[in-house]
Amino acid sequence: MTWFAIFATATLCFGLKLAGWSLPAGVLAHERLQRAAALLPLALLAALVVVQTFSHGRSLTVDARAAGLAAAGLALLVRAPFIVVVVVAAAAAALVRAVT
Questions:
Q1: Helix (H, G, I), strand (E, B) or coil at 10
Q2: What is the pLDDT of residues 49-64, one digit of tens each?
Q3: 13-22 b/e with 16+ CB inside 10 Å = b?
Q4: How far is the C-alpha of 17 from the C-alpha of 43, rounded, in Å?
Q5: What is the number of alpha carbons within 13 Å of residue 88 lying toward its C-beta?
Q6: DSSP letter, residue 1
Q7: Is 57 left (phi over 0), alpha (psi -120 to 50) or beta?
Q8: Residue 59 forms beta bridges with which residues?
Q9: What pTM did the predictor assign?
Q10: What is the DSSP string of 26-85?
Q11: pLDDT digits (tens, 9 = 90+) for 51-100
């Protein structure tokens, strides 16, 4: 069953890639499609961050990771450099873990 799922996924990915190459250039030149394609990586990254922050196995949880994410968001709002954002998030999560 696992090999069937792997083969089906690979076939689907190949078909999707082939469909993208088969589209006429005029379809891909639409401004709305280009804007959506430019925003897609940001949406996927945000979804990954939310899943990694608020999930524990198959359940929803709010713990020190949420505090770290909130602290990182505040650091980004004040336009802190990336390394400062990472340190602030880690420090906030560590502080919440130490207190609880």
A1: helix
A2: 999 999 988 888 899 9
A3: eeeeeeeeee
A4: 20
A5: 17
A6: -
A7: left
A8: 56
A9: 0.65
A10: HHHT-HHHHHHHHHHHHHHHHHHHHHHHHEETTEE--SHHHHHHHHHHHHHHTT--HHHH
A11: 999 998 888 889 999 999 999 999 999 999 999 999 999 999 999 999 98
Buried b (16+ CB within 10 A) or exposed e, 39-58: eeeeeeeeeeeeeebeeeee
Which residues, in sequence order, are bridge partners of residue 14? none
Length of the chain in residues, anyone?
A: 100
DSSP-derived secondary structure letter, 23: S
What does the block give as tokens for 19?
């469909």
Single-letter code of the amino acid located at 81 = P
* CA gap 60, 66 in Å, rounded: 12
